[in-house]
Amino acid sequence: MAADLNRVTLVGRLTRDPEVRHLPSGDPIASLRIAVNSRGRGDDGQWTDKPNFFDITVFGRQAETVSNYLSKGRRVGIDGRLQWREWEAKEGGKRQSVEVVANDVFFLDNRGDGDGGGGGGWSAQQAPSTPGGDLPVDTSDLSSPAPAPAGDDDIPF
């Protein structure tokens, strides 16, 4: 018998800032919600965007990283699995939901670029080890080169 497959990949924008809580063991959990647009024709024949909203749960070090670096409006990629939950509501009825449990979270825009932008993404697993701070960058090799002499004698071929 073939194995089952439970995998989902989404790209969208955060609808709110990440919310972090901790399990009794101290492990962090971050809750995210993203909006992903689907494009289709409406009843009038015009193309329209329809937003779909997904709840995302992130565990461990990635949860801390997304809470430190992400905010509402940021574009993210999520690779994970679907998980179904059922619980008893306070009113007495049964409730259920399907959420995405993230394996990887990819930051798809630059910090402070929440309204768009491209930028090379990076995974929350590759985050710097100092929360809230960026790694120092050595720019010594980026200085302007000295002007080249104006003669054919300097051509290396």
Keywords summarizing the entry:
157 residues; five-stranded mixed beta barrel; mainly beta; OB fold (Dihydrolipoamide Acetyltransferase, E2P)
Would you mind describing this structure in some detail?
The chain is mostly beta strands and 157 residues long. It has one domain: Beta Barrel (OB fold (Dihydrolipoamide Acetyltransferase, E2P)). The protein is 6% helix and 43% strand. Strands 1-3-4-6-5 form a five-stranded mixed beta barrel. Strand 2 (19-22) and strand 3 (28-41) form a beta hairpin. It is globular, with a radius of gyration of 23 Å. The relative contact order is 0.18. Residues 116-120 and 126-135 have low confidence and may be disordered.
Task: Tell me the name of the CATH homologous superfamily.
Answer: Nucleic acid-binding proteins
Largest sheet: 5 strands, mixed, barrel
- For the record, what CATH class applies? Mainly Beta
Low-pLDDT residue intervals, each spanning 5 or more residues: 116-120, 126-135
How many strands in all? 7
Question: Strand order of the main beta sheet, please?
Answer: 1-3-4-6-5
Structural class: mainly beta
User: How many domains, in number, for the residues?
Assistant: 1
CA(first)-CA(last) distance = 65 Å
- CATH topology description: OB fold (Dihydrolipoamide Acetyltransferase, E2P)
Please tell me the overall pLDDT: 80
Q: Could you say what the CATH architecture is?
A: Beta Barrel
Helix/strand order: EEEEHEEE
The value of Rg in angstroms is 23 Å
